[in-house]
Amino acid sequence: MYREDYLLRFVKQLAAALARVAGLRKSGEHEQALQEIQETWDELLGMPPGLFESMSADALTAILGSPEKARAVASLLHEEAAVLRTLGRSEAAERKERLAKELGATTKTTS
Question: Is the pLDDT assigned to residue 108 strictly greater than 70?
Answer without folding.
Answer: no
